[in-house]
Amino acid sequence: MSLRKNSLRTRSKLFFAYYRHEIELKGILYLKALPLYVALIAYISLLAYLTNKPIEAFFQVCAFLFLRYKFNTTYHAPNTATCVFITLCVISFAIPSTPRLGITVFGGIGTAFVVCFLSYIAQVVVDARKPKKFDMATCSREDFIKRCREVNMTKDCTDIALAYFYDKSMKIWDIAREYSIDYDSAKRKVNRIKHKLLD
Predict the structure, then answer these.
(1) Domain architecture of the chain: domains with CATH
(2) Crossing angle of the two packed helices 80-97 and 104-129, in degrees rounded to 10
(3) Residue 174: CB partners within 8 Å, gap ≥ 6?
(4) CA-to-CA distance for 70 and 117, rounded, in angstroms?
(5) Range of 102-116, 122-136, 177-191 with top mean pLDDT
(6) pLDDT tens digits, residue range 64-98?
(7) Which of 49-63, 127-141, 168-182 has the lowest mean pLDDT?
(8) What burial class does residue 180 get, using C-beta atoms within 10 Å of its C-beta: 0-12 exposed, 13-18 middle, 19+ buried?
(9) How far apart (Å, rounded) are the C-alpha atoms in residues 146 and 141?
(10) How far apart, in Å, are the Cα atoms of 114 and each of 107, 177, 179?
(11) What are phi and psi for residue 71, nearest 5 degrees?
């Protein structure tokens, strides 16, 4: 019984230690970004004041924070400077263009939805333009040969790659016998080919 209690106590300690570490890590990250968040809030407040749309701005920001998680993906800039620039541009356009409806909530929510939707479309376009990662398990024979050419593989290495990885008609012993090398050399050769294909 005491062994079970000790096991439970140990698990509890590990559980709390893990989550304490996660909270500390996120706290450090948020503290580093705090000046940026303060500046962003100040800019939104100033823009809302100048355009005389504080209520619309408030509901728009709240709706944006809620709606952005309703889409599968949203645009992520490659670095912080680009992210800040895009955010300032979007805010500078979104708050003044929020329509004044009878109920200001809908104006803010509508604009936030448009911003989130455009962010989703932008990320989908970016993902579509990214080169697809080579996958030996699902590619066609033509794609496999094309990949071998892309990485400047010799004819012998291409033949080994096709036979070993694609057709699965050769084992390491077969490669060693075919090229008159020992087993370990054949294994190293196969690993080098694999790394070259996947890098």
Answers:
(1) 2-129 (no CATH), 141-198 (1.10.10)
(2) 140
(3) 163
(4) 10
(5) 177-191
(6) 888 877 777 777 777 777 877 888 888 888 888 87
(7) 127-141
(8) exposed
(9) 9
(10) 11, 64, 62
(11) -95, 150
Q: How far is CA 135 from the centre of its chain?
A: 19
Residue 46: pLDDT band by 50, 70, 90 thresholds? Answer: very high
Whether 112 and 64 have beta carbons less than 8 Å apart is answered as: yes
How is residue 25 written in tokens?
């890590």
Whole-number Å distance between alpha carbons of 37 and 167: 55
Q: Which two tokens stand for residue 6?
A: 């000790």
Residue with tokens 């949203």: 74
Phi, psi (degrees; rounded to nearest 5) at 103? -110, 110
Whose tokens are 């408030």? That residue is: 58
**Maximum distance among all alpha carbons in the chain?**
84
Spatial distance between the Cα atoms of 95 and 108, rounded to a whole number of angstroms: 8
Query: 102 pLDDT exceeds 60?
Result: no
DSSP 8-state assignment for residue 190: H
Helix, strand, or coil here: 75?
coil
Indicate the residue type of 94: A
Cα dihedral value 123, 68, 54, 39, nearest 10: -70
| Dihedral pair phi/psi, residue 61, rounded to 5° | -65, -45
Residue reference for tokens 């809302």: 48
Q: Which two tokens stand for residue 126?
A: 């970016």
